[in-house]
Design goal:
By secondary structure, this protein is α/β, with parallel strands linked by helices. It has twelve helices and 21 strands. The chain has two domains: 5-68 and 112-191 and 283-356, FAD/NAD(P)-binding domain; 78-107 and 194-281 and 366-404, D-Amino Acid Oxidase, Chain A, domain 2. The protein is 35% helix and 26% strand. An eight-stranded mixed β-sheet has the order 7-6-15-16-17-14-18-21. Bound molecules: 8-demethyl-8-dimethylamino-flavin-adenine-dinucleotide and P-hydroxybenzoic acid. P-hydroxybenzoic acid is lined by residues 51-53, 213, 224, 226, 234, 307-308, 310. The site of P-hydroxybenzoic acid has 10 residues, from strand 16.
Length: 411
Amino acid sequence: MTQRREHRSQVGIVGAGPAGLVLAKLLARAGVDSVVLEARSRSYVEARVRAGVLEAPTVELLREAGVADRLDREGMPHSGIALRFADAPGGPAQDHRIDFADLVGKGITVYGQQEVVKDLLADRIDDAGLPVEFEVSDVEFHDVTTDAPSITWTAADGSAHRLHCDVVAGCDGFHGGSRAVAGAGGDLTVAERSYPFAWLGVLAKAAPTTDELVYAHHDRGFALYSMRSPEVTRLYLQVPPETDPGDWSEARIWDELQTRLARPGFTLNEGEFLEKPGVTGMRSMVAGPMRRGRLFLAGDAAHIVPPTGAKGMNLAIADVRVLAEAITRFYAGAGEGGFDGYSETCLRRVWRAEHFSWFMTSMLHRFDPGTEAGDPFGVGLQRAQLRYTVSSRAAATSLAENYVGLPHGAV
Ligand code: RFL
Ligand code: PHB
């Protein structure tokens, strides 16, 4: 075996998703150097279609970090969403707009997660000339409970490497290995909830027919109408968790979308699919504390929300803002004390978002789709909550302030 090459950096970051890349950017601005390791190729991470909604505090942070030029040019500011449901069983669906601008004076921005990732990679690699090590394998964390942790990995060409650092960040998403390393100390608690459904997502070359996102409650299950640009629509259908996307032809998907999104006066534009439909499971998960020694978890590595509240990427970015500040304080002389509040500060926001995502998910999905008798009690509660949300200014404001994102540090 060839000899392992030794490297040194202040911070080692595993994962080049939103959490890892925003952390690297915030640290670079504070004069702290980092190495980013990523299992996939650059083209793969740039093409991975995921989230689309940026909270107001996320947009502000990306602006402050100097990586929002294209976001400001191409992002689509939205000042509300619609909740679409039938007021009474069997009746026609109607839209009820939640007017964020009026209720909380802020909005959201529709801009694909992979566009955020592209902008951050271009900024780091092409503009600043800093590296991201793509296509690494066999990543392992070592000595995380000491003040000299390290990471070993195998590079794409088969060479072996070790990075010595002061701090390691597990930004490797839900399927990464950092959560298990954090748990090896024995004091990690994992709180979980699963849901009896999944989302089938499609990206279509079809002009959006309405300016805002539509969350539809329907007897056949939830549907979401979203978009990526003035030419591209993003749509989701609630489906059983074990769904094989291969069983859903284009015609069947459009049929189901037309049914669940139907409203008098609404037209759903159809168009060719730009990628194969995918099925995403729904779960809630919180792992804490988000720290073991000098290993810090951030983003999906530590917590998952169902996508109904559009919170996952935003939470990942909120975590690394707190982490970048903690690391900066550490180097400014605060020592370990700089890290003490990290997990607690993050988990307060995480639990608020967990509650909101669970609330949106529970209010909008059918827990009994396709059953003849259905669950009239559950559906009655959902209708009551939907009617209350759209008719009470207090309830609508609560939804709006959570959706646009509470200010960082507010909860
Ligand atoms: P990511 O984006 O998963 O990035 C983790 C990175 O780590 C790499 N990796 C490794 N690298 C090296 N070594 C290893 N051993 C590694 N293991 C993994 C992976 O390849 C990857 O590049 O996690 P991060 O940065 O924490 O970001 C989280 C977000 O990606 C996620 O929360 C959102 O996509 C969730 N989400 C949404 N979030 C929103 O804020 N708004 C939305 O509208 C929204 N919609 C969604 C969503 C997620 C969805 N899916 C597909 C899960 C809609 C969907 C359908
Ligand atoms: C999306 O556009 O991908 C999207 C929008 C809102 C959500 C989830 C996903 O709640």
